[in-house]
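Hi R.,

Here's the chain you asked about this morning:
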Amino acid sequence: MGDPPSALPSAPAPGVAALRSSGLSINAPPIQWYPGHIAKAERALRDALAKVDLVIEVRDARIPLATGHPRLQRWIGSRQHLLVLNRVDMIPAPLRAAWTDWFRTRGQALLWCDAKAGTGVKQLQQAAIRSGEALNARRRSRGMRPRPVRALMLGFPNVGKSALINRLVRQKVVESARRAGVTRSLRWVRLGQDLDLLDAPGVLPPRLDDQLAALRLALCDDIGQAAYDAEAVAAAFIALLSALETRPAAGVPAGLLERRYGIPLGVLGSGAAQDAPPDAPPDAEGWLAAAAERHTSGDSLRMATKLLDDFRCSRLGAIALELPPLSPPAPRLPAP
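And the predicted structure, written out as tokens:
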């Protein structure tokens, strides 16, 4: 939990980085982070985990894999674990069943929530309380009085942990905002007589070798804006949208950008003098420049920010940036 911070590797060459879960390819810009408050949060979690019975892991429904911490299982050990996919309203409805089945085949049940509207919050509360029944049964067998279940709300920054707690308590007891890094310290919140919740700051891994996962985190605003270049991320997003048009489950209709902004998306190498090859990548930078001329007086940074905000606020519709992997991972064989 206390690994030293490391710089992320350089971005791969154009067309090399693969969207492993969908078989698509795009170029991912370099993204790196490790703010000091997250390093501090990891150290605090070491002590906090010793005091809880249950870990409620919150992920972003648009990117369920990218928002899974690689060290989570090591942290929770034998404690009970509830997996929550928040922002269910921001992905196409048919995709929910696909993800539910995918996680179930890996032995992981999940709960769907929308902290903004309150969808699924009651079911989360009931599941957390049920997890404490076995705990209190053991306490009674030892002549001890029952006590509330102690649950840690854990996840990446800005996945909606604090908003879920406020929904559960039905009042604003912890700070919540649509940006990363709002929660800076651990805080206990009492929920009736059955459940105590510990709100923890968002925790990122100290390094992330998969730059496509880092790109998805940036697109969903699950890392601070200081970690990336908005124009580069917007250009990668345009390429990703173009690629996801071939996967209907993602919810990206053909010609989305043209209908929304009035600018068609061309491809690199196209023009009057030559035809573009069939597999030519989209001209994301050209589209961004043309859209900037039309909508932001030629300011490409403002246009990039507008595009990203439109996605993050669902003005482009319900779009999933990750799909269930096409095939299960190969089983790990024991060492000879």
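The CA atoms of residues 180 and 206 lie 16 Å apart.

Let me know if you need anything else.
M.
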